[in-house]
Amino acid sequence: AVVDAQAGAWAPVVVPAAASSAAPAARAAPLAVWVDAEGRVCVLGGEVTGRSPAPLGEVWRVPGAIPDPAAATGVGAGVGADTFTFRRDVTFAGVPSVGHEVRVVVNTRALIAAGKMRPDCADASFRVAASGEVVAAWLDPQPGCFAEKTTFWLAARSSPAVALHLRYGAAGHAEVRAAPDAVFTAWAATSGDAADRTDYAAACPAATPNECWSAATACGAAGSGAAPFSAVVAPSGVAASQPASGGGGPVSTVLRAAVGLGADQPGALTWPLSATGGLQSYVLRAHVYDNDSGRAAHWMSPSAVAGACVAGAKPSRGASASAAPVTGIGVFTPATGGVGGMGSGVVNGTGPSGSGLLAAAGPWRGLDAAPRRAGWRALEIECDGAHVTLRVDGEVVAAGLPPANLSAIVLFAGHVADSASAEPAPAYWSTVFAARRAPASAPTNVTLGAEVSEVWAGVGAAWIKVTTSGNAPEPARGAAAAELAGALYVWGGLPAKTVAAGSGGAVHRLDITANPPAWSRVDPVGGASPGTRANHVVAALDANGGGGGTTGAVLVHGGRGRGGGEILGDVWTFTPSDAAWELLFSSGGGDGSSYPLLHSHSGAARGGALYVFGGA
Q: Which keywords describe this protein according to UniProt (predicted)?
């Protein structure tokens, strides 16, 4: 665990155990825990419950640097690319099937404002709780990062109810977002289809009937030499305002919907979903660049309706209000005059979009909550099997509409120029997808748990067993160690097999600056030395009276004597520079003072004093 000493807050440090790697056994009383020059935490020795003590030479190291405790509350805490500092549990209920899309909504605005998440949300990482495996997630560009309702789309794992962790707070981590076609039921490409076609006048190739766009012949596009759609690089003015793709940047290639100059030449583009058998509960989304033209029709529908775009029913001169698909949303501006029943969007006989509003079909009507403007708009049709809800830019603009099955993604295009010389303004489509959702009768519930401060080293960051050189001391229970001048000094303990590690006053030194760490035995000069003992305190006192300096002595206090019966209170020093033991105070306190008789306690040296705590 890591603690912020200023705030007094603890955060557990989790190092996931890889299936193919070893890890140190759970143990009590490790001899020493230290941080090496590269910021990696190392552990020496300890006692394994129910077994003999772990060999004193056994050193384990945490891979990668552990965050600085003083920074462990912010996104800057992670030193390694995969070192996260926060976790939230994600649980699901009611996911209909494996691979079913689910949405997880996160208030990234609050997390970023608090300094807990990167401004680009790149450190938001979904992981399988049990294994740490990355879960493919797509960041929805609507509303995108730094929003109160940032949406991540995930495909349910091998078990629809598998528990996940959302981890974040890693300054150096950049999550590789899932390719959308790996998440969604249908991701309708705007950069060419499965056959790498960018001109869609012909029918879909037989080899990829459900992975391509095809112009609808009912609209006079295929075979007429006037395919209104093509995949193009977004013009600079359009690309500048384009929403991100969900992987970090905008989609460079878009669908251009352009129609004939000065003539009624509507068309439709269809991405079939026959492989799914059609969906009764779904989300259909597309981004459209509305050119704000006064005579245009660019809208989408979940099904190709017979007669919806044939002569007399197409969005052009003389179009009737009843000639509309069962469900549709977008721009719809028929010619002026004689258009009735259009609802609140009608102004001076013009159609819904002509009044300055986006429109909804069935029949066509203006959407008061969705005024038109030049730029990208996110259009969404969601059906829960009982009702249809329409959204524009993430906001509900119509609800409680009759249900409509999703049999194909259909984009319609039409433009009527006022004169033969007028330049029609094309529309552009991008980020088109369809996702399954649970029906209203059996909804999916996603629960995002409370935030937990937890430093997590990441998958692949398995413990490393460090090989040491030299002769390590024999395993002993109750030994103790302290760090002084780049070395650990180990002394004492009761024997596991033969003699105690501290028998004869010998001290074992582990040079932790060497690679690999090197053991050596330091035999004391002179006959004086502490008697064999265990569960004592060993602390480092440097030449200036502090702990862990470049020169100085090692202090030993208390513990249990041989056999475990006698509790001691004497204080000894061992000076590495001359390899000599010296008794400072006996258990009785030679000057009349009373020194504590303690074992199993902890201690540290500072300012020329030894501080002890706990024990018995």
A: Kelch repeat, Repeat
